[in-house]
């Protein structure tokens, strides 16, 4: 098979021929139809993630069709069209049995812990537990995004933020997860305000349904003024910056919730006195377990949510090495289509 392989952190990846993967006894091999190019793929390529082995095939956000299964697989069948959460649980630990595979202590992630989906074929672990059927007719490029950014945004908003129709949500950072949050929150009946320093990213958020956008440099007072009612009830920090975390907390109304999705380095300062005085909640959110996909897939199957709206560029596998090494335009989203 053809695959994109990283042989040195930060060096331009190579398009190479590799042996076709074979499924583990409880795994499956999927012929890849599309793979999203995610910011975390670039972090792995640059060597920012501990434990990523060299050489490796990146790619964790995928859609495709099952072409082989291991001898112990019972639920998944050859020919099934599937995606998978980027956090693949072991399926047997206490967290997985409770439907919380996104915090499985034995989790594996294609493109990080083992070869991923920037390839014609990808081997996935614990198939019965992790593979998720795709609705018929789903666009491959849009379906791939259900594996990471759309699912991550959905769980941040619903499972951690608890949004309801009529809520006003502040999204900080109009990258992959942030733009997905705009799309999902609007689908669920919430108004979305987006803070991002890049005019192009703000314009993209408006096209996806944001009711207002602003530069975060305007500060929390301006955000609360723009939103009204004392500020946002839910904020999603998807930028991964310490100052964005502080902005999100200070832009909340009393008893508001900030959901931290962006990966922060170091130990950011948190305005604890304000959290206490306003009874705020700060919570993390890490992907979404396969057990939580049915409600999201219902939105897709009924046409209420179209993840393909997020896609701006579709490229062939041969163009993936250069795309992985390039700096993306603000608000853009590239999907590799086989």
Automatic annotation (TrEMBL):
Top-level taxon of the source organism: Bacteria
Domain Enoyl reductase (ER): 10-337
Coiled-coil stretches: none
Required cofactor names: Zn(2+)
Keyword set includes Metal-binding: yes
SUPFAM superfamilies: GroES-like, NAD(P)-binding Rossmann-fold domains
Pfam families tied to this protein: ADH_N, ADH_zinc_N
Record's keyword terms, sorted: Metal-binding, Oxidoreductase, Zinc
Family (UniProt): Belongs to the zinc-containing alcohol dehydrogenase family.
Descriptive protein name: Zinc-dependent alcohol dehydrogenase family protein
